[in-house]
Design a protein that fits this description.
Layout lengths: L7 H28 L3 H4 L14 H7 L3 H31 L7 H13 L4 H10 L17 H12 L3 H9 L4 H9 L4 H17 L2 H6 L8 H11 L8 H8 L3 H17 L2 H11 L8
Length: 290
């Protein structure tokens, strides 16, 4: 077996990727080190990559509040249901558009493209949500993102790359459009579905603005509103819980904010390894020529 000769360009790529990896990892490692540092030591020593002292008091103070579990449950529910609705609606809309014989294909494609460049604005959007009766409901977090023009175009392009012979053989055997979609097209689109599942889950997990604008009940809040209240307002203390107040007064706000950041990002980081094998293939779907 002939070994590939290492060129100067290969070395350059390794150096650049190493530097980029360090840039991406440094904030995460620094935040993790800050979250487990001793509040008293932080007053006289800065934290870079290694914690100063060791203390889990910030985590105990945050995880000691039952609202953390509720916010996690809400966020997982929004991400799971919203992603499922997005995948189903996008597949059902993109599949007909993948047929050149579909009569309304051109009109719908143009209409979808227009929505990528023009929007009605926040006030009309809010009034629409209000008229639909979705304010302060579960559905306001999952239904507005059901259809995305970008997702539909990418799905349509990928579906068009599937050989027509596979679909035609199924039609000859008596299968209908829905059966062809579920039995042939969807199984062949695992990389596409896995990639957009990852994008969607990350999007729902990081979304706090929708909840901030349309939710009124604290019991419906996602985990990102906890992070916002800590990082921006530093307002998470429950005045009805004396023990929680004592815990927060004994720790630094810096370690509390760092611990809250770690608590909110660790679950979503755990998803990447399971979808990594599909990710490299899935990110290339946009380059397929329609």
């Amino acid at each position: 077996m002939v070994q590939k000769k290492v060129t100067g360009f290969d070395i350059f790529l390794v150096v650049i990727l190493t530097l980029m990896s360090a840039l991406f990892l440094y904030p995460l490692l620094s935040t993790l080190a800050m979250s487990v540092s001793d509040s008293k030591v932080l007053l006289s020593s800065p934290v870079y990559l290694w914690p100063k002292g060791f203390s889990l008091q910030s985590y105990r103070a945050l995880l000691g509040d039952a609202r953390i579990g509720l916010y996690y449950f809400n966020t997982i529910a929004y991400a799971a249901v919203g992603t499922l609705i997005m995948l189903v609606c996008t597949c059902l809309m993109a599949y007909p558009l993948s047929f050149k014989s579909f009569q309304g294909r051109s009109f719908l494609s143009v209409a979808l493209t227009i929505t990528m460049f023009f929007g009605g604005g926040l006030i009309p959007y809010y009034l629409t949500i209000l008229k639909l009766g979705m304010i302060n409901t579960f559905w306001v977090m999952v239904l507005p993102g059901a259809i995305s023009a970008y997702n539909v175009i990418i799905f349509k392009t990928f579906f068009m790359s599937i050989p027509d012979s596979l679909k035609e053989s199924a039609y000859l055997d008596g299968a209908g459009h829905f059966r062809v979609l579920m039995v042939i097209v969807v199984p062949l689109s695992k990389a596409l579905l896995a990639t957009f599942t990852l994008f969607s889950v990350v999007g729902y997990w990081n979304d706090y603005l929708t909840a901030f604008l349309y939710l009124r009940d604290d019991t419906r809040y996602p985990i990102q509103l906890l992070l916002r209240r800590l990082l921006v307002l530093m307002d998470y203390k429950d005045p009805t819980t004396a023990e929680l107040l004592r815990n927060f007064t004994q720790i630094s706000t810096r370690t509390t904010k760092a611990a809250a950041t770690v608590i909110t990002i660790v679950p979503i980081l755990c998803i990447y390894p399971f979808l990594q094998k599909y990710f490299a293939q899935g990110v290339m779907v946009g380059s397929i020529k329609a």
